[in-house]
Structures are given as structure tokens and as C-alpha cells.
């Protein structure tokens, strides 16, 4: 089945090849990431929704991105809004786009809410083995998976949206196999513990280096585009070496010019190459163009408008109406 999905995706179906039996269920995201990491399909390219609004999710879902990130951690987003956004992404894309949700912290309930909605999850600020174990436990069903996730009784409709992709195992085990878990390493402590984390918690599907946070934690200039400081480069090299050792897929952002994107995304299996907030900021680019096309100037009025002005106040100079209706040099009575 894995080979079939990868072949269908590469043949043009994209992420629709990895959709489950119902769009209310998570895609087979774990499989898609692994296929991208091992070169069976191209890397996944995604859109990052920083503003987290339902109308935005509805608008961008059909645009063709492989995946869309809902940022629940850093937005004024509640459970209902997050859930609706996930459904909009899955349904408005007709399964061609995989929804991800970055949850706010490590809360057991928040992780469950995002998975119940049908998303895969991003867990921020993972620094220790214990934190990683807690996150994965919250996302998995069953003691055999060291899982503590609660089974939702009515999030899927019996006999309709709860049909398993693999009928040989339970629905819960299918869901365990479908939804992916990506952790974010955002401190030096996290990098120092990453080897142990990936050794002790093998069900982590992908890892993201939080460049902005890690630079802030190191007392360096906070920028999402990295830097050239020796201590920063050393930390990144250590991170990359650990991922290669464990053959773990990497996620990250790749914004800017083609060359910047190529550099940022070269080792990634999941790449977020556009951000709604950045695109909205770009709307202001047209403003100086418009101001240049239409500078401040006195405007001539047509004959009918002139006659009306003359009738109302009679103030004209050489056929030109002044902004206040008076000719230049005149003082109104």
C-alpha cells in the first residue's frame, strides 16, 4: 500500500494519494513524510497560517499546497476555530492538502483536540526525553504504544467516517499510523538532548529546528534566517548530525529568493515556503507606486462643474477651481 500511495502521488495525485477513508480522519501523513524523506516523492511544500482565521483557511485550501500549518500556539485561536480550520483545509482542498496544527505547549488535551480534528501535530519547545515521551503518549492510543490519548466517542460517525484504511487492525491503530508528530527543538538544551530523545522516543516522525527561538535563547540577534556566529553554526551542525544519525525527516521554512529557498530547504522533507502574514504585508508594496502615479495636483473640472461652481459662489481663477472653492488670493466674505 505504501508503494501504491507514493506512486499515485508521484503520478499527479499529490497528497490526495495519502488521504484516509474519510476527510474527518488524518491523512497518512507519517507515510507521506517518510516517502518524501526517502525520495519516493518530492519534498512537501506548505503554507504557514500565522493569523489562524477560518475565512483565510477556506480561501487558501484550494490553492494546491501539499500542507497547511495552523498556528494555534501563537494566535488568538480557540478549540472551535482550530477544528473548523482543519476541516476547511481538508474538505476545501478535497484531500489534496494535509493540515498540521502547532499546539500551544505540551498540554495533553490540546494535543488530543488537534488530532481529533483530523490534523497532524507540531509540538513546540521540546527539550528533554520526558517532554518528548509525554507528547507522543498524548498523541497515541493503547498501552502497546505507551499511549494515553483518550478515544473520542462521537468525533467520527459510526459506519461512515470511522472506516479504517486497514481493516485488519482497529480504527485506533489506524489513527496511530496516520497522524504524524513533529517536534520543535528550540534551545541548546533541546539540541544537547536530541540524540537521547530520538533514541528513547522513536515514534517522533519529524524534527524542526526553531531558528528564531534558538537564537533568542543563545542571546543572539533573533532572526528566522539564521546567522554566521560560530556558536550558532556549531549548534546547527550538531542538530543536523543527530538527524542524519537517526535518519529522521526534517521540517523547516524556506522563504525569499529562489537561492534562499534552495539553501534553507535543501535537507528538508517538509518545507513551508509561504506565510499569510508576510503576504499581507506585501499588499503595502503597491502604495508608493500609486502615490507616484497620482501625485498631489490641481485638477481641472469640466464645463458643467465650472458653471455650477460659478453659480454657487462665483470664485474662479483662469477657469481653475481652488480646493476650497475660492480663487487664489481671494479672501472669502
Task: Characterize the structure shown.
This protein is an alpha/beta fold. The chain has 14 helices and eight strands. An eight-stranded parallel barrel has the order 1-2-3-4-5-6-7-8, surrounded by seven helices. Strand 1, helix 3 and strand 2 form a beta-alpha-beta unit. Helix 3 packs parallel to helix 4 and helix 5 packs across helix 6. The longest helix is centred in the C-terminal third of the chain and has 17 residues. The chain is globular and about 90 Å long. It starts with a helix and ends in a 21-residue tail after the last helix. The C terminus is likely disordered.
Provide a short characterization of the protein structure.
With 333 residues, this protein is an alpha/beta fold. The chain has 14 helices and 8 strands.
The total of beta strands comes to 8
Instruction: Please count the helical segments.
Output: 14
Q: Which of globular, elongated, flat, extended, rod-shaped describes the shape?
A: globular
Radius of gyration: 27 Å
Structural class: alpha/beta
Helix content: 40-55%
Order of helical and strand elements: HHEHEHEHEHHEHEHHEHEHHH
Could you list the spans in which at least 5 consecutive residues all have pLDDT below 50?
Answer: 316-333
Provide the spatial order of strands within the biggest beta sheet.
Answer: 1-2-3-4-5-6-7-8
Gap between N and C termini, in Å? 89 Å
Strand content: 5-15%
